[in-house]
Amino acid sequence: MADLKKFVEEVKELSVVELNELVKMIEEEFGVSAAAVAVGAAPAAAGAAAEEEPTSVTVHMTAVDAAQKIPTIKVVREITGLGLGEAKALCDNVPSVIKENVAPAEGKEIAEKLKAVGATVELK
Prior knowledge:
6 helices, alpha+beta
């Protein structure tokens, strides 16, 4: 039991990006999903919800072209409003979250800007 308490304390210290990666690893390892389940939801409602477009997306940069690193840092600074050091850290430590909870159209626009400078981007 003491090991579980220690584990919980360690999890509390993780960043949002690290927590996201941990959840993905657990899902893949054990074949489970961390998605919330609505109790008593009608099957027809669940099917309709799956077809709807998401109301917000998160922009993840998964790779940076080494030859285009400086232009990528400039674009990340433009998008996020971060300083040079913080933008460089995001580019150095891919995968990284560039912007969270943005409208799908804005997410696509951000992804296009990053792809234009050679970055690999995912919208989730």
